[in-house]
Amino acid sequence: MELTLTPMTAPELARLLGALEQGYAEDLVAHRGMTPEAARERTVAQIGESLPVGVDTEGVLLRVGRVGDTEVGWIWVTLPTAAAPNQAWIHNIEVHEEHRGRGYARRMIQLIEAELAQLGVPELGLNVFGTNTVALGLYRSLGFEVTSQQMAKRVAPAG
C-alpha cells in the first residue's frame, strides 16, 4: 500500500505532542548544553507559541502519514510568514520507530512538497542537528542544501 497524508486531528496532536516535547528537550540538553528543566520549559513554550490553537492554528499543516489504516508517522509544516514570505518550514517530521527504514519520511516530504506546490510556495526549509546523520543524508538526497550553519563549543569552567 502507498503512504498518504491526512490532516491531523486534535486527539492525534495531543497524543503526539508528548513524545515531541520529550525528544526536542533531550536534543537541547545533548546539543545545546541546557539543563533538562530549562530545555523542557523552552520546548513547551516554543511549541505553544507555534501552535496556539493546536490543529486549528492558521498557516500550519499538520499531517499524519498512513499506510492503509496504519499511522506510520507525521509531519508539521508552517506556511510562509511575513518574516519568511517565500519559505515554508518543517518543524517536525517523524516516522514511528517500528516503521523506520521503509522510505516513509522521504515520501512524507515529497507529498508535503506537492501540497506546497499547489499552494504556490516556492521553498521549503528545516533545521537538523549536525549529529543526525541519517536525516542529513535523507535531506541531501531530496535536494536540500545547507543555507546556514551554527557551531558551538563547550567551555570548561574556570579554576
TrEMBL record:
Gene Ontology molecular function, alphabetical: acyltransferase activity
Domain N-acetyltransferase intervals: 18-159
EC number: 2.3.1.-
One Pfam assignment: Acetyltransf_1
Alphabetized UniProt keyword annotations: Acyltransferase, Transferase
Family annotation (InterPro entries): Acyl_CoA_acyltransferase, Bact_Acetyltransf, GNAT_dom
PANTHER family named in the record: AMINOALKYLPHOSPHONATE N-ACETYLTRANSFERASE-RELATED-RELATED
Protein name: GNAT family N-acetyltransferase
Species of origin: Micromonospora parva
